[in-house]
Fold:
Amino acid sequence: MTAQALDAPAGRRARRRRPIRFSTKKLVCAVLAYIVALIFLVPYAEMVVAAARPKDQLTDPTILPSHFDWSNFKTLWSTGLGRNLQVSLEVAGGATLLVLLVALPAAYYTARQQFRGRTAFLLLVLVTQMFQPTAMLVGIYKEFSSFGLTDSVFGLILVNAGFNMAFATWILNAYFSSIPVELEEAAMVDGTGRLGALLRITLPLAWPGVVTALIFTFISAWNELVIALILTTTPSKQPLTVALDSYIGGYQIDWGHLFAASAIATIPVIVLFAAIERKVVGGLTAGSIK
Amino acid sequence: MAETVTARTFSRRRSLAPLLWLGPALVLILLVVLTPVFIMLRTAFRNIDAIGFDHGWAGWRNFRQVFHEPDLHAVLLRTVWWVVAVVVITMVFSLALAALFNQTFPGRRVARWALIAPWAASVFMTAVVFRWMLQPGSGLINVLMHRFGLLDKIGDNASHADWLGRPEAAFWWMIAVAVFVSIPFTTYALLAGLQTIPPEVYEAARVDGSSTMRSYVSITLPLLRPALTVATLINIMNVFNSFPIIWEMTRGGPGDQTATTTVFMYQIKAQSIPEAAAMSVVNFGFVIVIVLVFLKASRWKEQVS
Structure:
């Protein structure tokens, strides 16, 4: 009884105070979040700053150089890194295409059909998603050397596609499952074949999932280091990550060009990734959180 | 009704149809994932010399060699320490960040995007930048610490500023970098989990007079458990397999004093491939255990049926 009587005015007071308290809270949250955001961006900003440091200020104990010198971004192309950038593009592009060709039919079929071995297949895919090439380095190295697939763009495409296919299959499967099968059947009644229904109805609806799977595969192949490190030895056949790794191993590290190349390789990828951010989490944790 | 129609359309070629659609995926998995596992297992039991010549069956010799490596004990302990430290610190920070980024405030979307950077960028390049920022005389981290009075002296001769030259300090910095690159995914996974909790639950708790802290402990955390479990397991897997951070910052050195089993395996590979294969098989055993726990915890079967 007393508690109730006390509660009422307290509740009213709280309600009256809420607008002010709410905005202070908002302000604190915003400030904290901006600080966190800044911390997470600093290393990548430093990448650009280091690339633009004039040569004579490279080891100065300053936060920013006295002026910026962007010449590293121009002279970069004569160091051979341009060629490595091209290899990276070929590998990432090729792996993305291969993943699309392989994962799309598998994801579509498992989303639409019940068949013997469906569960086994999905389990296999899930397990592959957990495996990482690092753990089976020796096996990959021996297999690909015996096939003559070292120093080969095709070899790198295969490995990257193999290890990224699982995620693509999962996310596409989730998208296809969410599209009502009745839509396809209506189209088939109207005279398109199953393939026509897939191409004209289902695929356009699942487009966001397709784009997400593609960008994710591209980025992960673009960033891959370990496998390329053991599968490529000729400098002109190495993707950018390996080429930059050998920069680090050298006696005299050419930091200016190293960071110019890193910045070129990193900044567009961050922008691309930001575009698909939400779907990627959904896909990576698919089948486990919801 | 709908199902019967589809089932009938497909029943004619029931036996071959799945192979047609799944075939390419199966071939790729067989070629890139399963064959290497098989070759790795086989290599671990072969006697292969330095030039790559196979002298036949070796039994458990390669494994005995691995287990007699004088430093294996230290490397194993360090690996456990590495995984536990990185995952625990990551989870604690990510829980806080997820709570923060789940609030509404102006500019939230932009701040969230910034958080993504380490996830999108290659771990390797992030590690390289950190190595650069830790240069004794001119690295940004040292310069800032010096300005704020946390380091009394910087420069090539200041031993305190030479973080990566001292195994202990180097290892802590590498843990910090690993946490840095693990936080984005973890935070996002937890944010996704937070969004599945209906606001009514909090409303009810508030009516019952529960404090914010109390609601968090007795409502948010229990409801967040599935997301927490999955994020933890994926992190354990990633951190255990993590190679670029240690490789770029210290190459596992001096010697193998900052190596985990993954880096150690790579170091062994330079001397003896079959022994590295045996080490890989040991690592792979850990991976299998993590996968099994993951499958059990994620209740994946309910999702696909």
User: Anything to note?
Assistant: Residues 166 and 190 of chain B are 35 Å apart (CA to CA). The first strand of chain B starts at residue 46 and ends at 48.
